[in-house]
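User: structure tokens for this one?
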Amino acid sequence: MGVVIPLEENKTRQASVKPLVDLTKADMDRVNQLILSKAGSDVQMIPEVANHLISSGGKRLRPMLTLAAASMFGYEGDQHVRLATSVEFMHTATLLHDDVVDESDLRRGKSTARMIWGNQASVLVGDFLLGQAFKMMVEVGSLEALDVLSTAATVIAEGEVLQLSVAKNMETTEDDYLEVIRAKTAALFAAAAEVGPIVAGTGRAERNALKSYGMNLGLAFQLVDDALDYGGKSADLGKNVGDDFREGKITLPVILAWRRGTTEDRAFWREAIEGGKSDEANLERALGLINRYNGLSDTIARAQHYGTIARDALAPLPASAWKSALLEVIDFCVARVN
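Assistant:
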């Protein structure tokens, strides 16, 4: 179990998002109020579906990045609250859509919206939230911020389609995989961080620093997520262990085990992933192969690499409590076990 040692070692360091949570608490209270307001509708099913996911216990890391990235440059207005809410609505919409595409039963330990209200309601409420997100972006009045977030929305959609095109394809390369997670996950992290300095009116260097920080943090975050799908527990993940395997997703632990395996091993992966034979016995064999070929530990090592790039992106910025909190988020994302 190559992943256990680095995860446990990092756990003792108690990396936490608490410093960021504490610093952004007042603004996040305003974000949460705005979320409830903008998720409202006279169409009863819309707030029911939206609130089911919004209230399900996510850490809301992405909107906190927006708030912190604006406040660290001395911003004292309220437009960052609207942008942070837009970011959270974009994220929530993608989760609703993802669960339909992936046919997921669990999200953060609860039944997915599609399991309760059906696929159609999930997709349409996701569309509603995207519409509300763009309305708030327009209200902010920053064409630059609108450009960054709307571009991210496009890239995320492209990432979803790209993931579909490589699903159940064992010829998928690590570069292909990184392209998917850069689009699906890291693009929104990058946009969330970049719009902070934009609304704060900083220069290009500060904006680029936060964009790079967000992009590489997002890559590290998703790499760890994909490792935990094979090395975590359902209670930690908020979903079933091995869901990626059952859905035929080609993630880095699988890619590494496939590339490094024997001809017999590769025949198994083709049967299990491409052939859809993803029963519990094959999941156990997959876990054994991933561990034999260091698929988990090397995926975590990749995450640590991108975490280092994120840390270096913030290095030129002056020391502050905000900067320290953002740096600790990197450690939390790489070391988290829940």
